[in-house]
Design brief:
Layout (H helix, E strand, L loop, with lengths): L1 E11 L4 E6 L4 H4 L5 E5 L6 E9 L2 E6 L5 H5 L5 E5 L14 H4 L3 E4 L4 E10 L4 E6 L5 E5 L5 E5 L4 E4 L9 H11 L8 H13 L3
Parallel strand pairs: 7-12
Antiparallel strand pairs: 1-2, 1-6, 2-5, 3-4, 3-6, 4-5, 7-8, 8-9, 9-10, 11-12
């Protein structure tokens, strides 16, 4: 499987180095000296990394055969692509590559179907699963251990234990609000369910 691991930015200096926008959680593995990467556009590669260093918080790479600023600038905006074994797992336990989580079935502990992971969003505080439900609607599930209790790659499923309000059907909530609007103290219940979903987002 091929994954985009970086995008080449502007040339740095006059000796062929380029800045790199890293798109992998493991740059030391994917972007280390000796790594051979295919490219998009394909005509720019393949490229072999000769050296790498961090300068002012940004990764700088030099590729074999790229010796001056002109050659480096010609690579600007090129995507760097690594070949990754689909069965390979990150070194840290309980971490997964995005492609391993995509299309997993999402279920409750009792087996009730919730939906299917169609997208993964990476935020500074946590990651989110975008889950498409059987009716076509979407729900966001924070990827935190308090909510996602199990990832089973063999069975291709993610088991969740959502707090109240996180995956409640909006139509059901609206109906409950209409039915209970005349009962004192009950009208705020849907609001508490909504805050339950927000608190779940803060759990990570």
């Amino acid at each position: 499987m091929q994954l985009v691991v970086a995008r080449i930015g502007r040339a740095h200096g006059i000796k062929g180095e380029v800045t790199v926008e890293v798109r992998t959680d493991e740059p030391e593995l994917r972007l280390g000296p000796g790594a051979v990467l295919t490219t998009d556009p394909a005509s720019a590669g393949p490229l072999t990394i000769e050296t790498g260093r961090v300068h002012s918080g940004r990764l700088l790479l030099r590729f074999e055969g790229v010796r001056d600023r002109t050659a480096a600038e010609a690579l600007r905006n090129t995507l760097l692509i690594a070949d990754v074994d689909p069965a390979e797992l990150p070194e840290e336990p309980d971490e997964y590559y995005d492609h391993q989580l995509m299309d997993l079935d999402v279920v409750l502990a009792d087996g009730t179907e919730v939906g299917r992971i169609t997208e993964i969003t990476h935020l500074p505080s946590q990651d989110l699963f975008i889950v498409e439900r059987p009716d076509g609607s979407e729900v966001m599930i924070p990827f935190v251990e308090q909510i996602v209790t199990e990832i089973d790659l063999q069975e291709q499923r993610a088991v969740i234990d959502p707090p109240p309000g996180l995956i409640d059907d909006r139509a059901v909530i609206a109906s409950a609000r209409d039915e209970e609007a005349d009962e004192p103290g009950e009208a705020e219940e849907p609001g508490r369910s909504g805050r339950g979903g927000q608190n779940a987002g803060d759990a990570g």
